[in-house]
Design a protein that fits this description.
It is built from no helices and 6 strands. It is mainly β. It has a single domain, classed as Thrombin, subunit H, CATH 2.40.10.270. The chain has a 6-stranded antiparallel β-barrel. Strand 4 and strand 5 form a beta hairpin.
Amino acid sequence: MYKGKSSNTVGVMRYRITVQKPVKSTTQGQPVVSWVDLLVEEPADYEYTRGYQSVRGRQVEEGVDCIFYVRWREEHDPENRIAFDGEYYGVIFVRPVAGRRRYMELHCKVIK
């Protein structure tokens, strides 16, 4: 069960994130995806899990993986993205912690 860095309180969720959802439309026959704020100033705990750099076909690919711990909400799903500290993170996987509908883990990857 998620206990944060010291206890099971919102106080350990000291970071603030913005969760955005995609809005799909068509402009001049072309699909366009724009992002709308869904949850602003959402309390979260941030845990950096790994950074990596690899070479694939003469291209250097680099990225950062992390986990955001947030309060449980219906709105969280893998289509959303997270704005945090000047970067955007794509949500890869959403996992309820301990199955009690109290906390969720949002496994993310930096979007370049």
